[in-house]
Amino acid sequence: MKSRDIALVGILLAAGAIARYISLFIPGAIVANLTIAFYCLAIILVVPKYKEALGIGVVAGIICAVFSHSVFPLGNLISEPIGAIVCLFVYKAIRNKTKKLSPTITTSIATPASGFSFIAITFLVMIAPSGATIETMIAFIAPLIPIVLGATVVNAIIVQIIALPASALMQKTIPIQKRTHETPANEESVIELKNVSYAYDSDNPEFVLKDLNLKIGRGEFVIVTGSSGAGKTTFCKTVTGITLHSYGGILKGEITIAGKYADKYKEDELGEAAGMVFDDADAQLIFTTVEEEIRTGLETRKLKEFEIEEKLEELYRLTNTKVIKDQAPHTLSGGQKQRVAFAAALSKETPILVLDEATSELDKESRKQIYIVLKSLSEAGRTVVLVEHMIDETVEYATRQIRLEKGEIVYDGIPMKETLVVPTFSKKPALKTKPAAVVKNIVHVYGNQLKALDGVSMELYAGEITAIVGENGSGKTTLIKHLNGLLKPTTGTVEIFDQNIEKMKIAEISKNVGLVFQNPDTMLFENTCLKEVLFGLKNIRNENEKKKTGRNGNKKNANRRDENKRDENKRDENKENEEAALTALKEVGLSDKMDMNPRHLSRGERQRLALACVIAMNQPILILDEPTTGLDLKESIEIMEQIIKLRNEGKSVLMITHSPKIAEMAADCVIEMAFGKITSVKEITNAGAEDMIKKTDIRNADIKNTDLKSANPKNANFEIAGGI
Amino acid sequence: MRILKSPEGFKMDDIMQYVPGNGFFHKLNAMTKLIFAVGMLFAAVLTSNLSLLAAIVLFVAALAVLSGLGKALLKQLPLLLFLSLLLMLLTVLTMKTGNVLFYLIPIGSGYISVTDGAILFAAAMSLRFVVLISSFQMLIISTKPGELVNTLYVLRVPNDYALMFLIAVRFIPTLQREGVRINEAQLSRGYHPGGGVIGKVKQIGPVMLPLMLNSLSKADTLGLTIDMRGYRKAAENKRKIKYTGLDFIIIITVIIILGIIAFLSLNPTSFIV
Lengths: 724, 273
What we know:
Distance between the termini of chain A: 32 Å
Shape of chain B: flat
Number of strands of chain A: 20
Strand content of chain B: 5-15%
Largest interface: A-B, 125 and 110 residues
Number of strands of chain B: 4
Oligomer: heterodimer
């Protein structure tokens, strides 16, 4: 099996464990196994060999036995492999006959196969030998039959809903594209691209990289910049040889990595030459503690025990990870995850190190620390490639900048600061009338210990943008969750249009308050953009209807005329909704993509779609959590233009941002938070902004780890592995 | 135990039920605990003698209390009671061996007889389930997820499958949290699926679908990371496990118990209830 398939199965089994756990709230559900749906999904997506399916079944069995209060754990170890084998067998038999329904049919056969074998085994071992009568056995089994059948139906629904979109999402992987070379590789070159072009889809070749020629040498520290969709990630995956090894598609030209053509490396050798930190930090953490994550990288290098300990300490120091070494990945913040992923990549001590937006969630101190480490590595002779949005910050550290645009190199030279001028927006003067929302002295305590919010008060006005800035963990996200009722304050009140929202349902509050979370992917699920926008509108309509029928619910005089009228109303509303949705999509510039799958949009476009979803709902108060993360300055400005337009229409906007530039550009008022308290409130006039920028400038960042200030590459324990 | 709090009464315990502690069960290595759990399972299956089963239950309970796991184990009580009552009811209704003790409906000559055979049988079954569920719970509560994975390596489970299990264990809490986050995002859009089974099924689209698609898109990066860092070969370094005196004591105790029970159930005449 390929590593990716292993990862895929692992993740699906995790989901299966959760599904099974949730299902335990139904009495008797101990037999109805929803995990089956997920290993069936895994088998349908991966289509493994029979032996591998058996292995998947055994792992699923272990998970069921271990995490779900199974009444007979050994039974799971037998019944789940049976289910897996049946699943593979059925799927292989029917997948060519009925493409659309094959996941459902497969699951509907595999679920009872596994469920009934579990029952049979449990009875054979646990109950039958103890002298139960036939009647008793039948009485035991009879109530279990509907449970298994119920699970079969639910499993079939789950698989059918997820299988198709999931298989559309999976990229084809092709192991290694062996090629013939006219000349031997240049043994001196560290990274060399010769006429390299690359397209992911070989049927419909749209080249993401176009005819790149490039040499990156020993000791260079290169920053790669460009707007999203410029091909930066593909560039990273190409200079590390990943595109050649793991993806299908078309690759032209020659890639040389550490003196060898990329395809001459075996799959597991490539990792010795080049290390890469991907942008999704969470997906790079595999082990259950930070220490294991970093240590395993060292262990794979056949070092002596004391060397491992020494290097481990060094890595902790370089990345400030010692304090979190016993923590599990899910307890880490985004920034901490990025530091661990960085440490794990460093542990391999590869001559080439590539980081793809690997610092996006770090605060300025940590970013500076990483730049210093990277600089010292490059000074020690390693080659560093860094993709960054914060170009200005890296200028002092990097030795070279490459700017990509539409897959081509448009600049290659010394690092330069960004020249993009931030436009000034036309803002209507703010109308300080009655506040739309009032937060009064709220305190929020998580569990018994942590005071996430400690006496926060603020007011939001119509026609104003309020920005909240502050470091990770200062309570920003906790605060905004109080404004639409996702969290209730431990003490204090939240009033929306003079109404205390404590007793209101979220669905009710959402008529007035729209909230968009940081990552648009947490909300997008429909298969077209239009449907996605309509989802919220439908919810509001449902809520309104519930209210209406709630009032007239007891009157049973709903005769036919009323029903007709309601149908008519519904049709009108559908029309209205669709119009509102189309207008919203037009506002954010996505009308030509209304039928596209949101997952095929770029990150910036997805962010705009999320914005369209709240624009369509037309709520007077909008709350946006980091609306510009993952976007470059140009895209951020586009988003801010939208938000300012909403402001000028009289909406009250509250947004969290970590970018001082954004706050200065758009907000009327900037609130700074630290440790759950508001530390400063600033009405923004153009003069006040200067101060904000200075405060968040990386040059003023203070690094706690004093050793690093004088990081001397010659003293570093880290030497270049392999040698170039 | 940490509890994930989410709005509108949607609460979920962490599935990872590991509770940090310092009791002696925590000090055993995962392998010993697994041997204990499986040993108790076999002991409970080998005999249907009520007093022997009761003795095993007492043994397991004593160990739990001694190692400070009693409280965590008590959480299983509702499930166990439910199971026992169900077994009792079904057996009494269908099994008529032994002497009639009384009638459930004492009208005329009486309907639905309750026999001592049925009650003894149901009691034995219940005790058996108690042993199974609690001994496995003790393993889960006292063992870090990472150590569980380690046992697979020690048991020589092929590397790929151990890695699969590792990834599942690693992602269970992540997916739980992500699920809560997605649920919050959809609630913020005015979504109100309602409670109960129907509500859960309704959530498959807006909550489960983005959860699965987001996680599956991680598989790509995860797979690449495994390759680049050479984790598929990592197993060679993981097959270490330390046995202490305490481990040996437990293992020997388990073997003795199994031996006694095997002997007694093979020679039923030498043992009278």
